[in-house]
Amino acid sequence: MTFDLQMVPQTFDMLHAGLVASSILLLLVTVFRKAKIVEKTVEKLVEVEKPVETIVEVERIVEVEKVVEKVVEVESKLKTADTDSALQLLSIIQQESRLIDFLSEDITGFSDEEVGAAARVIHNGGRKVLSDYLSLKPIRDENEETQITIENGFNPQEIRLTGNISGEAPFSGTLIHKGWRVDSISLPKLSENFDANILAPAEVEL
């Protein structure tokens, strides 16, 4: 039996080609399986980490909500002044006593008699406004220029201490001014289209 030696290299090349192809195929299968294992492992890790991340996020949200609640609580303690009522009262005083006209005027060139005459008009009109729309009461009942004692726990809005202040209450001092408190206020009701910023309309005589 004879062999064709020229066929040996070709057979050998095909064999090696098959081996190489099989090796590559096995390598791809192995890599693919490892990738699947890694992917599953990562998925498991992510599944394990998700609750931890969720807890952290919930804690952060709770902390933020607590801060917001504190800010809202502080803001709720601050009162907003009703500017319409203040402007309305100023408008009534202007109507009765021309207070804004007097305060806007430069009185440096006026004599004391002229200022006194204007002050009398303002006093009469302002007194009428207080009597008609406000109920006032003194904060302290003692006579002015008398010695009084300020006990501990006094309201600093009602009593303002001046002079040499040292130590803690009780304080003893001279009553300089009784102070005033508004017991009630009864201003006219405003219409829906009322513009409180107009303190006094321009007057035109025809």
From TrEMBL:
It comes from the Bacteria. Residues 83-205 form the DUF2760 domain. InterPro entries: DUF2760 (IPR021212). Keywords: Membrane, Transmembrane, Transmembrane helix. The chain crosses the membrane at residues 14-32. Pfam families: DUF2760. This is DUF2760 domain-containing protein.
